[in-house]
Structures are given as structure tokens and as C-alpha cells.
What we know:
- The chain has helices at residues 2-8, 14-42, 50-66, 68-75, 80-91, 93-113, 117-161, 164-167, 175-193, 199-204, 210-214; strands at residues 219-225, 230-235, 237-238, 241-242.
- By secondary structure, it is mainly α.
- It has a two-stranded antiparallel ribbon. Strands 3-4 form a two-stranded antiparallel sheet.
Amino acid sequence: VVWYRFFLLFFDSYSWNFSVMLAVVLVGISLGALLASYWFKKQPDAHKFIFPLTILNALLITILYGKFDFAFDRTIVLGPNTSIGLCSLFFMFPICFISGIMFSMFGNVLSLVIPSKTKAIGLLTLFNTCGGMCGAILAGIVAIPHLGIERSFFFLALLYGSILILVLPELRQTVSRATILWTQVGLFILSLTYFPFGKMKDTFSMRAIRICTEKWGEKRVAYKEGVNETIQYLRYDLLGVPYY
């Protein structure tokens, strides 16, 4: 939901937006799961990389969001339909791809703990589906109207990093493993420190009113994000006083 609202700032074809982004998400997860399957054939204990992959997704949210204008500027000349496809691949595919790998890894971990593989797969699918439903509701009712798109992205990155709490007992096992984990923790904290706050309001949203500000001399005096739209109020001054 957060991704969808973000893309609506740039493209206005709802059905095309939804279809392309859904395709990118599903293809990314599917290809990630296929890679995980091949990975497990080569390395049966590949699930030990769940934590680094989680941190990588947190880092990607910050990096890809901060560099989204780089992809947009270079693809918009190809037309809106092509651009949204390429921008979706740039912004959403890497995170979904890694999520597909993690999904398979979680399934493998559950199968090691629960004797019945059918029950393990059922529980994994159940909680994944419930999580997806609750996440969409949370994004639409709480995150977007109260946090805004940008802070919602920060919150998602923070959630990925919150898995640190679950693996802290692992830090006591070996010195080398502790060093690796603390290095990942440091990278995660560093990415949150340099999260590009203000880019939504000062860069992305300004694109929609550029002609008003640059050609007509209007100034933005109010800005508010909502579930259905992002509202920007503009004012034009004449002889030093508001004209409209």
C-alpha cells in the first residue's frame, strides 16, 4: 500500500500502476524462492543467512528510496508505461526478491522444528497471509494518514531491523559470529541515521508543481498527505500581498 501511494505521485493510471507493481512483487518473490531452493541444494544450512538478508532489506529501503529520482529521471523519457515498469523493478524488485528467499528460509527452519512438513508449510502460509492482510490495513489506516509515505518507509526499515532482538542470544556463541552480527547492526544503524528525510516533501512532491513554482512564481504554503491524495496549497503574491 505504501509503495502504491508512492508511485501515484508520478503516474495517474490506477489499473496500470496496480497491475505492474503486483507483477513485479510476485515475480520478485517467486524468483527469490526459486533461488533459495537451489541454494538449499548446495548448502542445506543456508537458513543461517536469514539475519543478514533481513538487514540487507532494511538497507535497501533507505538506499532505493533515496535514489528513486535517479531511476525516474532516466526512464520517464521512455513514456509513463515503460517508466513505471522500470521504476518498479528498480525500487521494489530487489526487496521482493530477497523477501522470497527469506520466505523459503523461514519455511526450512520451521520444517526443522516441526516434524510434519505439511503443518510447517501450513503455518508459514497462514502467518504470511495474515501478516500481509494486517500490513495492508495498518498501512492504509495508520501509516499513510498519520506517518506519511516517507516515515512509513522508515518504519518498515525499522521493523526489518527489529529482528535484532530475536538474535541477540546468538551473539554469545562465538567471537567471530558476534563480530559479523555487530557489523551488520552497525550498518543498519548507519542507514537509519542517513535516511533521506524530507525528500518526499522537498523533491518528489515538488515535481508535481514545478511548472507552477518555476514558470508562474507560485509558492507552496501547505502540504498534507492522505490515503487518497497528497494535497499541496499554492499561493501567488502580487505587489507583496497574496493575490490567490
